[in-house]
Amino acid sequence: MKEGGMFMKYVVNDSCIGCGLCPSTCPEVFSMGDDGKACAIDTEVPEECLGTAEEAKDGCPVSAIEEA
Ligand code: SF4
């Protein structure tokens, strides 16, 4: 069941240094692109991944992950 306000998407901005942390923390949402930078799925984060996705956002050393 979905609750209001729980819809969440992330984007990775240009300051990503390609450290690889976010895909290892939350592979359901983040992956490394061909350009060596991370990208996020462009669909809503599955509810069961909200915790690890948030952890990946908080753990990014250059704060390149933003809420979309
Ligand atoms: S944790 Fe941050 S810097 Fe590292 S790959 Fe992910 S977005 Fe890029």
Explain briefly what this protein structure is.
This protein is of the alpha+beta class. It is built from 2 helices and 4 strands.
Which strand-content bin applies to the residues? 15-25%
List the uncertain runs.
none
Category by helix and strand content: alpha+beta
Task: Order the strands across the largest sheet as they lie in space.
Answer: 1-4
Give the tally of structural domains. 1
CATH class label: Alpha Beta
Bulk shape:
globular
State the CATH architecture: 2-Layer Sandwich
**Main sheet characteristics:** 2 strands, antiparallel
Assembly state of the chains shown: single chain
- Strand-and-helix sequence, N→C? EHEEHE
Ligand names:
iron/sulfur cluster
Radius of gyration: 11 Å
Query: What proportion of the residues is helical, as a percent range?
Result: 10-25%
Mean pLDDT, all residues: 93
Q: What's the end-to-end separation, in Å?
A: 22 Å
β-strand number? 4
CATH fold-type name: Alpha-Beta Plaits
- How many helices? The count is 2
